[in-house]
Design goal:
The protein is mainly beta. The chain has three domains: 97 residues, no CATH class; 187 residues, no CATH class; 37 residues, no CATH class. Helix content is 10%, strand content 49%. It is built from one helix and 26 strands. The chain is elongated. 19% of the residues are buried. It comes from Aquimarina algicola. It holds the Pfam family MORN_2.
Amino acid sequence: MLMMKESNLKVQLSKLNYNRLLIAFLFIFQFAFTQQKHIVIDYTNVVDSITLYVDQNNTEKRSAIGFIRKTQKRTSTEKKTIDTCYFHNLISKNPDYHFQQKISVQKIKKNVWKHYLVYHEDCRGFKLPKDSISLEGYFKILDNTKPVDGALYEPSLYNEPDPYDDNKVLRPVPLTPASTSEGWFSKGLKNGQWVFLNYSFAKTEEYYKNGIRDGLYTVNTENDSILYQTTFINGTGVEKIYRKDGSLYHIKHFKNGIQDYTKPYTIYYDSNKIAAKTDYVKGIVTEYYRNGTIFKTQQITLKNDIFYYNGLYKGYNKAGQLKEKQYYDHNTIIYTITYDTKERIQKIETGNMIQYFEKGKLKEVKFIP
């Protein structure tokens, strides 16, 4: 009986040693494999550092896998890896992936934006909010410098509705575009070729140098014929965006890396008629129906590159009749006046008071508590 117990013990020890050897082998193999993907990090004079690495050795240029490593320096020659957070870098293939939400953009100069990967959630050894790292490598990102998808100015299968004939009151809401571009980051700054691809717009290729657009700017059709080509010099040039069908979408002027507000910004319908025009010098935005009549006008002011609704807003129906007036003070509506089909005052809203009119004459006054 004792001999059987000793025999079983030897078998168990043998299995234990085998398992230990197997674990050790797998650890060494994994370490050797991951070391091939790691980059050499210089820890000289570094007390605490975060490093973002993306594998760029693939045919599509896009990153397949990456890691973020946090390290601390112990002595002049010794360092300690606190933690490494691996991820499949779907950020480069799908900008809606949750890693995209961790990208933060900081304005480091008036005309230069730097991109960081910032942790909004704890990832093992990473602390919030200081652990962030400038992007390095090839990424596809949400790009708010480009239009969305034709938005208000796409061709319609139906007759364009007249919002005022439908008794709809429209407010002038700023368009906040969001689209995607892909290209190289170096130390968080756009560098080299960047491509704007969108299902409703023509392919646009542009070049950056240290975060500023500098070099050839080309818009191509699906057959790679050139729709438009120009050269940006240190951020100065004329940007034209085209739809997939070859129609011009917008013309925007830039100077030293920022929009040139001394020149108008114009958006076009696919028929090449003007859809919207912003005259920054005169301080007015004008939008048009497809038939060419004015849809609305809005007075604006520009302060520190921020636009405010200041002054009068006018809305018209397709027949050109005035349907609404509003007065704004720094985006706040002071009063609203609506008109009937004969352009007679129908209603006036001021603060908590509403005045109703019939055939141009005051009929009733209501106060809203």
